[in-house]
Amino acid sequence: MDSVFWSDGIAQLHPYVPGEQPKIANLVKLNTNENPFGPSPKVMAAIAQAAQSGLQLYPDPQSSQLLDALAQYHEVHESQVFVGNGSDEVLAHAFRAFFVKQKPLLIPDISYSFYTVYGALFGIECQKVALDDGLRVNIDDYLAIDPSSVAGVVIANPNAPTGVALPLFELERVLQHFSQTVVLIDEAYVDFGADSARALLNQYPNLLVVQTLSKSRSLAGLRIGFALGSATLIDGLVRVKDSFNSYPLDKVAQAAAIAAFEDEAYFQECRAAVMAQRDVVTAALQARGFEVLPSATNFVFACHPQHQGKELLAALRERAVLVRQFEKPRIADFLRITIGTAEQNQALLTALDGILA
Ligand code: PMP
Q1: Which residue of 214, 216, 217, 249 sits with most ligand 1 atoms within 8 Å of its CB, as the best mutation to test the pocket?
Q2: Kindly report the CA angle at 88 between 330 and 237, in degrees rounded to 5?
């Protein structure tokens, strides 16, 4: 469908289609990498308090208290922190601020699909670098590219939907090679077993680290993401943000995020529980004949040698278990399965036993 009312180029856009958010209850929902354990009780109390204190006034447009809290937590200056409405919005601002340059942006060929959506939206050509045979990001392939020929680099670490993480020294090679362009490391899942590139911030002014509270902090419903980088990069993001949405975070989200970073004990307990369940699910899938990629995330990416991904997806859905499958070359037979509670994971395995029998 096209419309005479639309701006040029709108008809060519193919928006990102998120995983299903089902309208019916009682489904075992392991399809969009949410955290099954919910936010800390202290976060729930902060949300109630923020709402009770009145919502008639606009929130702090700068989210200053939250910036302070994030700066303290991540041991950077507050001029090095940026917050947005989910890391999706932070990514959008970063694409707009750093990569609109008449040169292609390097991304892995199999990665978070929003990158190409934003590329199309902002007129950025995305040059895809193939994952290697083990579905890993191969840094040597990036280093073979002339750094002056690209607008920047985006790498999700751990990558999605594969779940595979790179060690920091590999990211450093990219940061050094592409020193004159922004290297954005999307760390949506970093808290589940990978090393954060935030440790490299002081050495690399071209590094932008993007994180979210949707996964390890269980706050996908509130939409809070943030970026850490040099003050120059953050200044670029603020210019785009203020031109677009000068109130990115509402009052409730700001209060919740501050409380989330205050409750370190809950955070540690929660991520440990997810990682322990990931080990259980990985072993159980392997015992059922699946190949499971090594995951540093709150999901596993697995394929069965005798069954098509599409077939398993449908059969699980019939048994009220939702997982994700991508109709893309090389990964169509993989299922991306979010780690749930012990009960949810058991329901997945029981359903698979029925299907594989
Ligand atoms: N990056 C990656 C790699 C993701 O998988 C997701 C979640 N779908 C996001 C960013 C966005 O997360 P959010 O907008 O909830 O912060």
Answers
A1: 214
A2: 125
